[in-house]
Amino acid sequence: MIPSVLDAPAPGWTADADVVVIGSGIAGLVAALRCRPHGRVLLVTKALLDAGSTRWAQGGIASALDPDDTPGEHLADTLTAGVGLCDEAAVRVLVTEGPDAVRGLIALGAAFDRAADGEISLTREGGHHRRRIAHAGGDATGAEISRALLAELKDSGVEVIEHALVLDLLKDAAGRAAGVTLHVMGEGQPNGVGAVRARAVVLATGGLGQVFSATTNPEVSTGDGVALALRAGAAVADLEFVQFHPTPLWLGEGARGQQPLISEAVRGEGAHLVDRSGERFMVGRHELAELAPRDVVTKGITNRMRETGEPCMLLDGRHFGAAMWEKRFPTILAVCRHHGIDPVTEPIPVLPAAHYSSGGVRTDLYGRTSVPGLYACGEVACTGVHGANRLASNSLLEGLVFAGRIAIALTDDLAAADFAGTTEPPGLATSPDALQTGGLVDPGARGEVQRIMTSHVGVLRGAEGLDTAARELAALPHGGAEPGVEAWEATNLHTVASAIVAAARLREETRGSHWRQDFPERSDAGWHGHLVTRLAGNVLTTAYEPLEGDDQ
Ligand code: SIN
């Protein structure tokens, strides 16, 4: 049973805003800044402002900035990577608005790397037929974008609460989003469980990689936004498409937690994937070899490991030389050396790890979810641009473009909405649902959720393992845990894991990052559509929705 509301004490404090934005990666920061004309904006974030995934992004941000490139070519590469499940209208928005959005970041002060002629230096990554990835600080793109946006936030009038774990959505009598409950810990701020009343709620909570034992995601990526949205009754789509990055640094058998990323840009600049014998095993598997879309490379690595029995594969960039490593990939060089590997003189051991959720809270082209007044952007959202597999470096762009569109939507939506129901102070204490939850998951179950997901729902999936995962997740103890951050996070992880398993069991085909050993082919006849998950009455249901125009 999945709880429809988290057990939490009655709010001890309340605050008011016109727009509350949850999350402070690129999507949350852009949403907060762009929503400022709509009134009082409150940005709440789970840890420190720069602790989310954005600041870890290495490769860069994709857009057709090169005069020889076009949005149409970017569109084609994105649709190919998404294996038939992208929403073409959403991708068109992404690629046509993308170049100006990136220029907007540059105007804000984001310092992208430039070539000798002063033009933005562009690199390639998996699935891109052209150089179109802008980067900063060599391989510290996310950190630079985050720095520039945070500088802009400083005097913007946006109010900030850090160390705030969002709990549940508040709704008015008409079922419209009316704010959130959250738990805050930190000096100089309201503390404990509180309620923020707002006319619009923007989820920008990032990813869910911590559902797995090994992930490139930071500690905070526990799927809180997807879990909240499910509890609020919102539609969530495409959760089976968890993307496994092909080349995180291998830290040895059984490594857990956040794994250091070795950017695809390293391959974009010409590094080769080899096995221990030195064979370039991606050559012949795909026309782009090491620069095939990410799912293809991850499958290539996994297959080669099974063929050879080796525990990892190797990424060889020795031919770059020391000067290039130092200039182009200073972060990766330092991280590898910290772990005792010198990429200048030896190949880097790599192993795929959970990286990105291509699915999430379903939105329209303006970030609207199925719950009026609730919006989503960034990784937590499923805007339709990624389909079954996100194209590399489209994620920062998606956050940037679609967060801005929420501010546009609010102009009409706030004027049209009837806020009569929000005048009563909301709070969990007034909601009868709060008393009948499925119960909190014990904090100790967090490791179990990760073990189950890693053992049975990883890169390669099959009915037997997925059935085991469903059974083991359902058997984890519910109900006895004391309310608190650890139990709330464990409950969110459990909810999201259960939803991923439900979708992965249902989709009996191989497509994009969803790889079924028992259904190894793509099946457009059976599965050319989305899996949409909802939570009602503490029960998750996942339904197949064929794409419009398909007659099934
Ligand atoms: C990378 O730098 O390889 C990650 C880029 C991405 O996830 O888009």
From TrEMBL:
InterPro entries: FAD-dep_OxRdtase_2_FAD-bd, FAD/NAD-bd_sf, Fum_R/Succ_DH_flav-like_C_sf, Fum_Rdtase/Succ_DH_flav-like_C, NadB, Succ_DH/fumarate_Rdtase_cat_sf. Keywords: FAD, Flavoprotein, Oxidoreductase, Pyridine nucleotide biosynthesis. It is found in: Cytoplasm. It comes from the Bacteria. Pathway: Cofactor biosynthesis; NAD(+) biosynthesis; iminoaspartate from L-aspartate (oxidase route): step 1/1. It catalyses: L-aspartate + O2 = iminosuccinate + H2O2. Residues 447-547 form the Fumarate reductase/succinate dehydrogenase flavoprotein-like C-terminal domain. Its cofactor is FAD. Its EC number is 1.4.3.16. Residues 18-396 form the FAD-dependent oxidoreductase 2 FAD-binding domain. GO terms for molecular function: L-aspartate oxidase activity. Belongs to the FAD-dependent oxidoreductase 2 family. NadB subfamily. Catalyzes the oxidation of L-aspartate to iminoaspartate, the first step in the de novo biosynthesis of NAD(+). This is L-aspartate oxidase. It comes from Actinomadura violacea.
